[in-house]
Amino acid sequence: MAFWLFKSEPDAWSWEQQQARGQAGEEWTGVRNYQARNHMRAMKLGERGFFYHSNIGKEVVGIVEVCGLSAPDSTADDPRWDCVTVRAVEPMPRPVTLEAIKAEPRLAGMVLVTNSRLSVQPVGDEEWRVICEMGGL
Q1: How many whole angstroms from its chain centre is CA 23?
Q2: Which residues have a Cβ under 8 Å from the Cβ of 81 and sit 6 or more positions away?
């Protein structure tokens, strides 16, 4: 099973809004980067991801699950853009800040540290475990 990180600016789409969508989840729309799109195309049902508040907060605040496979992005006029549907699984008991992630030597190679602009990115198994531990899970 692969793990992922989904970045969202909380003033555009917040963890609270994601949770309010319940089991149906929400399309992860608006991604206009080929690498991020290709990550979504590779996702499988049931895979988990971190929900990361970017720009404001800069922290992992929850865990989501892929509940809908890659399909055309309903907000795009261009058929090249896809999105998955994700649903909230659980909040992070202690949000894990970007500062804390950068300070943790075991996370030095994490995409969030090395390519912080990518909005949908893979997370390694050990990175997943370390961040869950830091967040109290």
Answers
A1: 17
A2: 31, 32, 37, 72, 73
Nearest to 3 by CA among 110, 102, 75: 110
pTM higher than 0.85: yes
Residues in the chain: 137
The CATH number of the domain holding residue 22 is 3.10.590.10
- Overall number of domains in the chain: 1
- pLDDT of the chain, 137 residues: tens digit per residue: 899 999 999 999 999 999 999 999 999 999 999 999 999 999 999 999 999 999 889 999 999 999 999 999 999 999 999 999 999 999 999 999 999 999 999 999 999 999 878 999 999 999 999 999 999 99
* Separation between Cα atoms, residue 84 and residue 70, nearest integer Å: 4
Say if CB 15 and CB 59 are below 8 A apart.
no
